[in-house]
Amino acid sequence: MLDFSADSPCVLIWTSPRKAIQKIIETHPNYLNFPLAFLISLDRLLFEASQQSLGLHYNYSVILGLAILIGIGYAFVWLYFFGWILQQIGKCFGGSAPFAHVRTVLAWAGAPALLSIAVWFALLLFFPKSTFIKMDSGPSLLFLYFIMLIPSVWSLAIGIIGLQEVQHFSVGKAVGNWIIFFAIFLLFQKIGFFLWAYFLTFM
What are phi and psi of 155, to 5 degrees? Predict the structure, then answer.
C-alpha cells in the first residue's frame, strides 16, 4: 500500500535516501521493489525505442504496448539477475548484505524513473507520432536529454548511498561497486536492446 506521509519511504527517497533505505530494509525489504523495477525497465525500453526510431515502422500504441509487456520480464531480470551481480561485486569489496537488501537498493535507486515516465507520457499525449522517432539535433533533443539526465544523476546518488547503507561501505567502495556493476550492466543492456530493436524491426 502506498504511503505518502512525511516519514514514508515514498517521500524520504526524495529528501533523505539513506533514511528511506534504512526504513525499508528494517520493515519490509520487498516494499514496492517490483513496481519500481518495472518503471525503470519501461523507461529504458521507451528511450531505446526512440533512439532506434521505431516510430517510423510502428504505431506508438504498438510500441508502448510491447514495452509494457517486455518491461514486466525485464523487471524480474533487473531485480534478480542484476541484483545478484550487484551483490557478487559487493562481496568482492568485502560486503555481506543479504540479497533482499541489495535488491532493495537496486529497485529504489530507480525511483527517479517516475520523472522520466511522466515525461514520456507527456510526449505521448502531445506528440504521439514523433515520440519514438530519434531527433538528430536541435533544442528538442537537448531538452529530452536534459530532462532524462536529472533522474539518472539522482538514481546514481541513491544507488551509492544505498550501497553505503546496506553494505556498510565507504563512499569510495560504494562508488567502485556501482561503477563496475554499471559497466557490466551496460554490456548486457547493449545486447538486450539490440535484440529488442531487431525483434521489432523484423516482426
Answer: -60, -45
Contact 69, 143 (CB under 8 A): no
The per-residue pLDDT for range 100-132, each reduced to its tens digit, is 999 999 999 999 988 889 888 888 888 888 788
Nearest to 155, CA basis, from 74, 68, 43, 28: 43
b/e code 129-147 from CB counts within 10 Å (16+ = b): eebbeeeeeeeeeeebeee
Q: For 125-184, write each residue's pLDDT tens digit.
A: 888 887 887 765 444 556 666 667 788 889 999 999 999 999 999 999 999 999 999 999
Q: Which amino acid is at 20?
A: A
As given in the structure block, the three cell numbers for residue 154 are 539522482
Three-state SS sequence of 80-92: HHHHHHHHHHHHH
* Least confident stretch, 24-33, 80-89, 121-130, 136-145: 136-145
Distance CA 90, CA 142 (A): 35
C-alpha distance from residue 111 to each of 27, 132, 136 (Å): 18, 23, 29
Q: How far apart are CA 55 and CA 53, in angstroms?
A: 5
CA atoms in the 13 A half-sphere facing the CB of 174: 20
Identify whether the C-beta of residue 52 lies closer than 8 Å to the C-beta of residue 134. Answer: yes
Question: What are the Cα distances from residue 172, in Å, to 20, 101, 117?
Answer: 21, 20, 31
